[in-house]
Amino acid sequence: MALPNNIGDETSEVLAAQAHIMNHVLNYVISMSLKCAIQLEIPDIIYSHGRSMTISDLLNALPINKLKGHNCIYRLMRILIHVGFFIQGEEGYLLTPTSRLLLKNEPLSLSPFVQAQLDPILMDLWHSLSKWFTNGDSTPFATTHGKPLFEYAGDDPRVNRLLNEAMGSDAQLIISVLIKNGKGVFEGLKSLVDVGGGTGTAAKAISNAFPELKCSVFDLPHVVEGLEGGNNLSYIGGDMFKSVPSANAILLKENGGKVIVIDIVIDNEKRDNKSFETQMFSDVLMMVHVSGKERNEQEWAKLFSDSGFSHYKISHILGLRELVIPM
Ligand SMILES: C[S@@+](CC[C@H](N)C(=O)[O-])C[C@H]1O[C@@H](n2cnc3c(N)ncnc32)[C@H](O)[C@@H]1O
Q1: Domain co-membership, 120 together with 236
Q2: Fewer CB atoms near the end CB (10 Å): N or C, the chain?
Q3: What is the CATH number of the domain that holds 256?
């Protein structure tokens, strides 16, 4: 598209297109600034301060080279305030509900999720996405040092911990909402296995809320190695592709045959809203990280019917995730 000579509608269109490109391409500035703030423990420092925190107080409290301080921290905070992670009050910086959800000791903290998503081990996968599309072999994209990401984690304790903590932090909120608002889901169950249940965040919460329910966490051996269960909680290591029929992000399966899926259902009707955008993010993320996908309702329906279920119920009680129960 050549730039027109006279300033008019077409020029505005090109300028708007340029701004559109810049905004989307530079979006990583926000994620990476947030990651930096979390690594410097800025949310925790402001929280511990107990009231608005001036930039001088923040600089004094930060474990940074003071020569790099004032101006750069001010600029880092300015963008994070702009997008709603902090508030600039009259007397200094304050937390928002979003930054509270990033505090280290907050039970529902999403900090581990942020750290993992923005870790080079996951970010690197994106750099070879186009190469994968064009190369001649048929390997699934998501390989890290030649292995699927979750398998590779078995060779690298840092990545194992990073992924397990990230998955757990994401699961904590969802499962507490489900236990609070969807108690009926677990009624009548005697035993339940959380397939791909990570280090057991969800199963632990369920086993505590339902002491009569026997819960097992099933995941790859390196994920559950050394983990100890309790009265009604146990850990089993194995490969779901060998011993359990195909499962998705979180699959809870009772011995009697009830299947409970907590996952995204892509909703094309919501095309113009934010949650559709997040569903798209998640779908492409699944493609790149684990050669997986998010499904729309028709695709879920086909999966269930191919697996021998005649119908299913979708309940919208979990924000971005849905509770999907095939019957
Ligand atoms: C997206 S995470 C979900 C974790 C957990 N459900 C949670 O929400 O915290 C997927 C989980 O599946 C596990 N996984 C991947 N491949 C597996 C396999 N072949 N057999 C068993 N578990 C597997 C991973 O180790 C990981 O813990």
Answers
A1: yes
A2: N
A3: 3.40.50.150
| Residue ID of nearest Cα to ligand 1 atom 4 | 198
What tens digit of pLDDT does each residue of 162-216 get?
A: 999 999 998 888 899 889 887 788 888 888 889 999 999 999 999 999 999 989 9
Q: Are 261 and 250 in contact (CB under 8 A)?
A: yes
Pocket (CB within 6 angstroms of ligand 1) = 150, 167-168, 170-171, 196-198, 201-202, 219-220, 223, 239-241, 249-250
- By percentage, how much of the chain surpasses pLDDT 70? 93
Chain position carrying tokens 């492409």: 284
Q: Specify whether the CB–CB gap between 77 and 53 falls below 8 A.
A: no
Number of other residues whose CB lies within 10 A of the CB of residue 126: 12
What is the number of domains present in the chain?
2
Q: Give dist(CA 221, CA 237) in Å, integer.
A: 4
pLDDT at residue 249 in the model: 34
> Does 2 fall in a domain?
no
Q: Would you put residue 242 in left (φ > 0), alpha (ψ -120 to 50) or beta?
A: alpha
The DSSP symbol for 67 reads G
Residues in CB range of 209: below 8 A, 6 or more apart: 179, 186
Distance of CA 49 from the midpoint of ligand 1 (Å) = 38
| Tens of pLDDT, residues 255-300 | 456 788 888 999 877 766 778 888 899 999 999 998 889 999 999 9
Asked if 165 and 116 count as a contact pair (C-beta separation under 8 A), the reply is yes
Query: Are 89 and 134 in the same domain?
Result: no
Cα(147) to centroid of ligand 1, in Å?
A: 15
The best mutation among 162, 215, 240 to test binding of ligand 1, ranked by most ligand atoms within 8 Å of the C-beta, falls on 240
Q: How many angstroms does the Cα of residue 150 sit away from the middle of ligand 1? A: 7
